[in-house]
Amino acid sequence: MIRTKNLVKTYNQGDIAVTVLSNINLNIEEGEFAGIYGLPGSGKTTLLSILGLVEAPTSGDIYFMGLNTAQKKEKDRVKIRKSNIGYIFEDFNLLDNMTLYENVMLPLIYSPVNKRERVEKVEDILSKLKLIHLKNRYPSQLTGELQQQAAIARALVNKPVMLIADEPTGKLNSKSGEYILNILSMINEEGTTVILGTSAKETAEHCRRIIHIFDGHIINESLL
Amino acid sequence: MNLIYYIRSAYRSLMKNKGYSFINIAGLSFGLGLVIIILLLVKYELNYDTNYPDADNIYRVISKGKFGTSRINDAQTPLALSDILQKMPETEMVTRFIPGANKFIRFKSAGFNEKKFFFGDKYIFDIFGLKLISGSLDSLTLPNKVVITENTSKTYFRNTNPLGQTITRGGIKYKIIAVCNDMPPASHFHFDFLASIETTREILGNTYEYKRWKNNLHLRNAYTYIKLKPGTSIRTFEKKLNKIIQQREKHNTAKKSITSKTIKLNFRLQPVKSIHLRLYLTSEMEEGTNPVHLVIYLAIALFILFITGINFINITTLYPTRRLKESSIRKLYGAKRRHIVLLTITEAFIVSAIATLSGLVIAELISPVFNSLFGLNLHITQINGLQDIGIVILITFAAGIISGIYPAKFFSEIKVISIFKKQYNINKSAFILRGTIAAGHLFVVLFLSVLTIGIWNQITYLKDHNPGFDPENIYVINNGFSAHQNFSNLKQELLRLKGVENVSASMSLPGEEYFKMTFNYKSGNKNTKITIPVNHVECDYLETLGLKLKKGTYLNCQMKDSMGIVLNETAIKELKIKKPLESHFEIQTSDGNSWKINIIGVVNDFHFEPLTKKIQPLGMMLLCNSGYFRYITIKLNDSYSGKTLKEIDSIWNKYSDNEPIESFFLSARLKSAYSKDDKMFKAILIFTVFSYFISILGFISLSLFLIEVKKKKIALARTIGISNNNIIRWLTFSFWKFMLVSIAMAVALAYVVLSLWLKNYYYHTTIPTGYYVIAIFAVILTWSVIIIIQYRKTTRTQKPSLFK
User: Fold this and answer.
1) What residue ranges do the domains of chain A occupy?
2) Considering the entire predicted model, what is its pTM?
3) Residue pair A3/A30 in contact by the 8 Å Cβ criterion
4) N or C: chain B end with fewer CB closer than 10 Å?
5) Residue B19: CB atoms within 10 Å
6) Which residue among B13, B334, B417 places its CB closest to the CB of A55?
7) pLDDT 10s digit of each residue in chain A, 224 long?
8) Does residue A64 sit at the B interface (CB-CB below 8 Å)?
9) What residues of B are in contact with residue A45 (Cβ under 8 Å)?
10) Which fold does the domain A2-97+152-223 belong to in CATH?
């Protein structure tokens, strides 16, 4: 699904270049449920943003479905990611002036999908995640767990082949976190590749493969 | 993605922050309300004399030329000119009229002093599109016939039929033959009565003087209007007309009168639509408008639009994090930069559309203030026609673009990666832009503040400037003609009153146009023709006005010195009269004789014209027939009271055959000469107060913005014990350079604009540097106080740890 070769990411902080990721070589197969585990500041969010084609690496290659996207321009990466990749975040990132229904529809708004198809897709995913009865609620009217479910619905509405989840349970209590992780497992079982970034060991343990990252280096990989 | 999606999203965004949206819309609404009022005012002024049918082909004939040593630029032309114009093939129609003097008009037991009594012909109705409400114009060619306006009919006759009724003016009876519409308010002249021009024969008598008055092509005594056939070249027509006049003069060389020797006249055509905004002619019937004032109003409208737009930007980008986060989420899911731009601009357009609608309501609500200030009747219903609606739509778009362009740029520049890093940092260019915008805001406020102070300073100077005589306690009876030849007795009776110090009379008063006379003056072997303004006065006039004698004597009643003249100091200086009391002027009469006029005295210079003009040479002579004076001037002493004025009134009634007194205090009248400047000052003051209010909102939002985007650094600074004063200094430091540039620019521009405006006044003041300092200090103080208050408020409610 996605493979990196000698991937390096450096940021300039004033006159100083800070290397956040060093020589990352990684291969995530289609249908995997991979966890990027590391302490805060270890570089996992940067790695997720590069794997999610949001950022380009400073050097090295990144192959998404066989296509090297490392040198692709932002507009080309947008084209690839908007129909293939879904994202969920620690603080849900729902638009608070939109209903749950409208939030879930957001990825379709910027895609060439007609109105009828949009409605069908949104209603399908909301029904599947048992959120349809809440579709007219605003994010502020939902619990954290429901907000994260809505965020998952938004990430999945375009039927992506890969899901990037950055600390998806970070702001949830353990029960809600468990519930969200179960949903992600279910999604993965249906064939979607899931890459989950976390700094919590117990969360990482839900993944079938754990990639341990420390100071921008992959220091360990384990399969459960 | 369709427009409805943008509109719905923008609406939701506005509803999300109802409080700020309200402030935003309210600020923009007030701004647009003021802009709409200004545009209505400018439209009204530009639409003067445009409502006549075929107005583009209507011209006023004006006189240009020389009268002795002075230039003529006069709105009046000879009465005889219309006969020549009538015969020219390019002419479609000609009319002329003569405004009568201010006289009492009586109908049965009622009566009023009427200023707008004209003598004219029926073509005035055709040229100016005046419709008859009742009656007929057929007999307007006969003497003693009069047409009245609808308003006059209501005043005099209320619900009764005025047709066939008789009114009396100056002992002459007039039969009302028709009632017509009132002249449109936006016209350069208005009449209430239009009597047949043939009546002038009865007034002046069928004498040689009447014939001369009627036929002389050098006397300017009437207003002439011509409607030309379409396609006529104005320049060719003017050349042709002046050639005809020259040929006629050549033909009459043998009979050349004294006036034709001293006056050289040319006639020009002035488009009727341009009259109101051209102020260079003498003898205008009504006061025009200085086009510079309109330019200033339009500039202020632009400024207001600009600062309300900036205010919108300030409030929209006040708490940027939420909007930046929204933009990055949208971008993550495929939104392009243009989508974010469109969304933000749509929001700005929605706000500006709502603000335009509420601005129209506000304009209607505040219109009474402007109407009373400018004596107008502005209403939003006057926004009509495609052009007006187009302008309103254009304003809405302009407000939307000005307001939305920066937030659109600001929000659309966010990078998607921010969403992963949870960092919504404002880049340096955003700070520069914001600093520039804040500086623009400051610029407008400071510019308007300095302008207001400068105008106020000049108006105060005009009102307080020593005119060279004492206008205080001078009570003037305006309709002095009505005392007929009883002035001497009236004067004696008035002098017996306890509160009266002196009484005199004159044909002109300081502050108005003076009659000009041409004299021969012989200096050595050189004989010069001089033309100077002359006031014909009663013998005690100079003392009544408190003019100081520099040489010789005042005019003297006992000496019957009607052939003496008193000059001002400028006349002596400019005419280079070395020994004034041993010099004399000569004046040639129509019968070829020459009268000697001795210079008997010299008085100090005084401002007999407004301070816009340099003091000119002036002569004052006794009026030969001392029975008819236009103005009676009564100098009151400090002990006068309301009772004194009532006593003057009752004495006046005795001598004026019960014609009501029309009076005023000279000091008040002189101050009213600057009423247009006063109005402009008040209007600019309103705009300045408004922009100051908006700028306070702007400064508040700028302070909140600074505190919001630097909250982490503030928290850190507080944690390590840096004092609040130092934090505030650090917070505002980056903006001071913008502020200083804008202060320098605003003060420089205001100085240039004020200097240009002050060029209208020969006598003007300079603005003390201290005033600039006060304006700058006030703005800086406001900005400093606001940031201190906002900072204190925030730090009081939020502990450093909460700044995470």
Assistant:
1) 2-97+152-223
2) 0.74
3) no
4) C
5) 8
6) B417
7) 899 999 999 988 777 888 889 888 999 999 999 999 998 888 888 999 999 998 889 999 999 988 898 888 888 888 888 889 999 888 888 888 889 999 999 888 888 888 899 899 999 999 988 889 999 999 989 998 899 889 989 988 988 899 999 988 888 888 888 888 888 899 999 889 999 999 988 888 888 899 999 988 988 887 66
8) no
9) 420-421
10) Rossmann fold (3.40.50)
